[in-house]
Design brief:
The protein has helices at residues 3-11, 32-44, 59-66, 71-98, 103-110, 116-122, 124-130, 132-147, 156-160, 164-176, 320-323, 387-390, 395-417, 422-441, and strands at 48-50, 56-58, 149-151, 181-187, 195-201, 217-218, 223-224, 233-234, 241-242, 247-250, 262-266, 279-286, 290-299, 308-311, 325-326, 347-349, 355-356, 363-366, 370-374, 384-386, 444-446, 466-467, 477-479, 493-496. With 497 residues, it is α+β, with helices and mostly antiparallel strands. A hairpin with a 6-residue loop joins β17 and β18.
Length: 497
């Protein structure tokens, strides 16, 4: 038996796994060390592989071809095998530590140059990251058991909050356990002759043709990971409600008009934490019937017994329910606008909480804060001028910025046309055409010089013609445009201080 034959017997081929299913037995993935060792032997021997057509391959491609694997499958299996080898090292290090060995002694016994490698093995967060692929695989397995066929195509990793690499590893694990993965094309209703490619993982025994019963293909977008695959939670939980006794309304006469829409939070309160952000656009459910909306910031000057102050331009005497917004009769969107898919909700440790942390096992409660956007999000917006702004500007400015946008598109087109690789050119031209179709519908002009999207927060200690804008030099004149706005009369001019 050749070396490669022996490897194949241990590790199998896609959709079948030699004598035993991938991950079966008392010690799942027990041959990862053998696999890595043998791959390393093949690399050292400068292994080559010649296919039936007489074409010779070298390096990892040769090893992958000899195993009947694609290069992607091979690299995925290599990554999984490395995780399994490290997992075995973690178990060994923990066992030696429990026996009273020092870090240096463990390093010596395990063949490490120093104790830093041992410290890394004993790091809990490092161990959790190593197990992300297996955790994701177990999560998907439960979803398949509950829902049946699952869409795992383009963009699913972003919806779940994990990397594409971890998703591919998880899918590979499941495929080796007998969960078939099929691809197919779905004709686009609005684009004749075009199709949308789909990728579906199915329960064992599912035939390829069954994925075209689209009503039976389900999504996992109702779940998300906040720790890159170490655990998964519901993407949206119905918001927790705050008792209005913790709320104070600051009306116009008391200074509320100067900070209209600003929500001031007491610092250090667990259920009102903004996390790592200093400010965020939030929604807070109050008494289960109404909600606050606005920009939330911390404040160190709140009245005793009050955790939240809401600033409004409404006059004294206005009932609280008329200051706040009434919730919508929609269990999936009570605020009438979507919150952030990733990080919009958070949890805090609470012995009386009804949720359980999937990693620590501690009881938790859902935070009162529901973020629509937070510090850093606005800086990622594309620096373009939307039609809502252009429609209220002089025609000469509209023409100028639209012509600049057209020039940018023409330059992009010329650059693509200069390419010599026909495959790359075809792909880029297709993407370019799609972007032109989008731009034709969503009319956007080129950005103005040094234009930035930023949050505008009122600072009452500053003069009416001053603004704190650290992106600009002191003394520079800055024009502020609020969206949406009624016209140019709502564009104040300030000086950076």
């Amino acid at each position: 038996m050749s070396l490669t034959d022996d490897i194949l017997m241990h590790y199998g081929m896609p959709r079948r796994s030699g004598r035993y299913p991938w991950g079966s037995g008392d010690n799942p993935y027990q041959h990862s060390g053998d696999f890595l060792s043998r791959v390393e032997e093949l690399k050292k021997s400068n292994f080559t592989f010649t296919d039936k057509d007489g074409k010779t391959y070298t390096g990892e491609v040769a090893i992958a071809k000899s195993m009947g694997l694609s290069t992607t499958q091979f690299r995925t299996q290599m990554s999984l095998a490395k995780d399994e080898r490290r997992s075995a090292d973690v178990s060994t290090a923990k066992a030696l530590r429990e026996k009273g060995y020092s870090l240096n002694e463990i390093a010596e016994k395990m063949g490490f140059a120093n104790d830093s490698s041992v410290r890394s093995l004993l790091n809990e967060s490092s161990e959790a990251r190593m197990n992300q692929a297996k955790t994701t695989a177990e999560f998907l397995k439960k979803q398949i058991a509950e829902k049946g066929m699952i869409d795992v195509g383009t963009g699913v990793e972003r919806e779940l909050g994990i990397s594409k690499e971890k998703l591919n590893q998880a899918l590979y694990i499941l495929e080796m356990e007998g969960y078939p993965i099929y691809g197919g094309g779905v004709p686009q209703v609005t684009n004749s002759g075009k199709q949308t490619n789909i990728k579906v993982i199915c329960p064992p025994g599912t035939e390829h043709k069954e994925i075209y019963n689209f009503e039976n293909v389900h999504s996992v977008r109702d779940y998300i990971s906040y720790d890159e695959g170490e655990s998964f939670r519901k993407a949206f939980e119905y918001p927790s409600s705050m008792n209005s006794k913790r709320l104070q309304i600051r009306y116009a006469e008391d200074g509320g008009i100067q900070k209209d829409g600003v929500i001031e939070l007491r610092r250090g309160v667990d259920d009102l934490s903004l996390g790592d952000a200093h400010y965020a656009q939030v929604r807070i459910l109050v008494d289960g019937t109404h909600y606050l909306k606005g920009m939330a910031v911390y404040s160190d000057d709140l009245p005793d017994g009050v955790d939240v102050v809401f600033n409004t331009n409404k006059k004294k005497g206005t009932p609280t329910q008329d200051v706040l917004k009434k919730i919508k009769d929609d269990p999936d969107n009570p605020f009438g606008s979507a919150i952030k898919e990733h990080g919009g909700q958070s949890y805090y440790d609470d012995p009386n909480g009804k949720y359980t942390d999937p990693v620590t096992g501690k009881k938790q409660s859902l935070s009162l804060i529901n973020k629509r956007a937070e510090e850093g999000d606005w800086g990622e917006w594309a620096d373009k001028l939307p039609s809502q702004f252009l429609s209220k500007q002089p025609k000469y400015l509209v023409d100028k910025q639209l012509n600049l946008a057209i020039s940018d598109k023409m330059a992009e087109f010329d650059e693509i046309c200069s390419l010599t690789n026909p495959t790359v050119k075809k792909s880029l031209l297709s993407s370019f055409a799609d972007s032109c179709d989008y731009d034709a519908v969503h009319l956007q002009a080129a950005a103005l010089p040094r234009q930035k999207y930023q949050v505008i927060l009122p600072i009452t200690s500053m003069k009416d013609n001053e603004v704190y804008a650290p992106n600009y030099k002191n003394g520079e004149t800055v024009a502020l445009v609020r969206y949406p706005h009624g016209g140019t009369f709502e564009i104040p001019i300030h000086r950076q201080q």
